[in-house]
Write a structure and sequence with these properties.
Helices cover 62% and strands 12% of the residues. With 120 residues, the protein is mainly alpha-helical. It has one domain (10-119): Arc Repressor Mutant, subunit A, CATH 1.10.10.
Length: 120
């Protein structure tokens, strides 16, 4: 049953996709279906519970599709939806920007730290 008052703000959407592990999960799933156990290995520092919660949230938001295969034990795969693949393109642009500007950011930090160390 759908609820009528389920408006989602842009801020809520940004909070979801900018979460600590969401980007890593979406990047992994954008290359094709990925298994739960593979995500556990790929994402450093994530607990099984946090991975489960993040996957559920991304599935709920329409960014992942979950497929359960009737095997013993059950195999579960997650795949990026078309909406997530569109987001992946935007994330690549951010990644490219960060690569191009990381040296400039490092230089700015050094100048800032030097100014503030001299003032102390």
């Amino acid at each position: 049953m759908l609820h009528k008052n389920t408006a989602v703000t842009p801020r809520e959407v940004l909070d979801r996709i900018a979460g600590k592990y969401a980007i890593q999960i979406l990047v992994a799933a954008s290359d094709g279906p990925v298994r739960f156990t593979d995500l556990e290995r790929l994402i450093e520092g994530i607990s099984r519970r946090m991975l489960t919660l993040t996957l559920r949230a991304l599935e709920r938001d329409g960014l992942l599709e979950r497929t359960v295969y009737a095997t013993v034990p059950p195999m579960v795969e997650y795949a990026a939806t078309p909406m997530a693949l569109e987001l992946h393109e935007a994330m690549l642009a951010f990644t490219d920007w960060s690569i191009r500007h990381s040296a400039t950011v490092a230089e700015s930090r050094e100048r800032y730290d030097a100014r503030h160390a001299a003032a102390s």
